[in-house]
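dumping this here before i forget
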Amino acid sequence: MLETGCYEQCAHANGRQPNLTATEYKTEFSMWAISASPIQVTTTIMNCSSAPLPSCSVTLDQQLSKSQCTLGKSFGCGADNASVWTAFGCRGVFTCNGQKLTCDVNGTGVHTCACPDAPVATCKGWLSDLQKEILLNTEVIAINQDVTPQGRPVKNGDLTVWARDLSDGSKAVALYNQEDAPAPIGVDFSSLGWAGATVKGRDLWQHADVGPFTSSIPARDVAPHETVVLRLFKQ
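structure:
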């Protein structure tokens, strides 16, 4: 599992905001996919309107009891700002936060009557444009969800090229630039077990077909901290 916001500092550990760029977020998701890592996303997906408690407002409209109803002495607004309390035999019709309420409870002691429902917060699903681009990328998710073993670097000690065999016979390849400057990265098909083959592919972040290529994918400039994810099909 990869934790968001851990480039140079770990946001979750020190209370800071995550500091990844859009490119780095995509790299994180790409590595989840090629590594067959369980995907666990924690992000705000609801946009809710605020519904603050109303200020306390209770008035007596009609006294129903013989006992006198006096604001602050025998009736008043509850501590939750959403109820009326009565005491000393007070019973009546009140206006609570602008809405009518009958509180007609007999007996000694203090009684509480809930005010009519106050406006509540409304929520709707929401994702930022970047979250949609990443979390709804079904082509990258399909790599993650394949049943084959996780991918790994094609060359020990070199993290720039990762590969994973997929169940339909295709291969997922990730070209990863961990450096702070652009770097040329390509892949020779012999390292994938396809020496001399002609291959067509799909760029899963650009959602574009690429190729055909024979024997290799020539080195291409990969931006700092970027990961290019390709799905390759042998012809």
